[in-house]
Write a structure and sequence with these properties.
Number of helices: 4
Number of strands: 6
Radius of gyration: 14 Å
Distance between the termini: 5 Å
CATH topology: Rossmann fold
Bound molecules: flavin mononucleotide
CATH class: Alpha Beta
Number of domains: 1
CATH superfamily: Flavodoxin domain
Order of helices and strands: EHEEHEHEEH
Strand content: 15-25%
Shape: globular
Structural class: alpha/beta
Largest sheet: 6 strands, parallel
CATH architecture: 3-Layer(aba) Sandwich
C-alpha cells in the first residue's frame, strides 16, 4: 500500500516517531515521511493512506510545524471525503486540562473537511510508562491492515 506519514512537531519527538513508523512499515509498503509544514492540503491523494503523528504544545495547541497546515486547510477548504487517515498523538498528562489536545484538534480538522478516520486515535503520555514506539508500531500495523480493507486490495 502507498502510505504517507505526516508529522507535526515542536521539538522533534513526533518526527523521530514518524521515522520509526516509516522504517517499520517500509519492508512491506511504499512509505514516504513528510513534515506537515510541507503538506499542501489540496495535494491529498485518495490512493494513499495517511498516518498523522502530532504532538501538543502551548495550552493544548498544535505544534509549530502543524500550524501552517491547519491555516492552509482553513483557507483552502479542501474536500477530503475520499481521504483515509489515522492519527497518533503525543502529549503529557502533566498538562491535565489539555492532554493530547493538539492531535485531537488535527483529527477534528481533517474530519471537518470530510476525511475518514481509520482506527482509534492513540494518546501517548510522556509521563506514563509506555515508550511511544511500543504503542505506535503495533498500532500502525493494525491501522494499515484496516485501511487496506477500506481502500481495497489495489492500494
Ligand atoms: C511548553 C510545552 C507545552 C506543552 N503543552 C502540552 C499540552 O498542553 N498538552 C499535552 O498533552 N502535552 C503538552 N506538552 C507535551 C508535549 O506534547 C510532549 O512533550 C511531546 O512529546 C512533544 O513532542 P514534539 O517534540 O514532537 O513537539 C507540552 C510540552 C511543552 C514543553
Amino acid at each position: 500500500m502507498k502510505i504517507t506519514i505526516l508529522y507535526g512537531t515542536e521539538t522533534g519527538n513526533a518526527e523521530m516517531l514518524a521515522e520509526d513508523i516509516t522504517a517499520s512499515l517500509s519492508a512491506e509498503h511504499e512509505v514516504e515521511c513528510r513534515n506537515l509544514s510541507e503538506m499542501d492540503p489540496r495535494a491529498f491523494d485518495p490512493a494513499r493512506f495517511y498516518i498523522l503523528v502530532c504532538s501538543t504544545y502551548g495550552e493544548g495547541e498544535l505544534p509549530a510545524s502543524a500550524r501552517p497546515f491547519a491555516e492552509a486547510v482553513a483557507a483552502a477548504r479542501p474536500d477530503l471525503s475520499a481521504i483515509h487517515f489515522a492519527i497518533f498523538g503525543l502529549g503529557d498528562s502533566e498538562y491535565a486540562e489539555t492532554f493530547n489536545h493538539g492531535p485531537k484538534r488535527l483529527a477534528e480538522l481533517m474530519a471537518a473537511h470530510g476525511a475518514r478516520q481509520v482506527g482509534e486515535r492513540i494518546a501517548h503520555d510522556a509521563s506514563g510508562g509506555d515508550l511511544a514506539e511500543d504503542l505506535a508500531l503495533p498500532w500502525a500495523e493494525a491501522v494499515v491492515a484496516a485501511a487496506r480493507e477500506r481502500l481495497g486490495e489495489a492500494a
